[in-house]
């Protein structure tokens, strides 16, 4: 999540370790040239972040002057953003088949991003009165769902 509260990406892994952190950070940084990358990366105090950040710097995928701040409470916004997803997973009975977990989480996160307004730049109008209808129409087009007005 960036400082505006927008979800940059998400990563699903069986374990929270340095390999998973490396894959996630590499994936998040991929679309950004080095001059557009953040100056500061905030994370909680989990030990899995320092090695991947150093590795990405060494590989030239992350700017050399990036600061890594490990402060337990700076990450609270990100962690609290996961809460609605966790509630959805519990409400659906949990994830029973690991192979389907990615597509399920991808759908949940896409809808959350849509509801947070992150796709509004793709909509045809900025009128707040029609924004909900536009978001619904966008999702219908995205998932190839036909809408019939009765």
From TrEMBL:
InterPro entries: DDE_dom, IS_Transposase. It comes from the Bacteria. Pfam families: DDE_Tnp_IS240. Residues 2-118 form the DDE domain. This is DDE domain-containing protein. It comes from Vibrio halioticoli NBRC 102217.
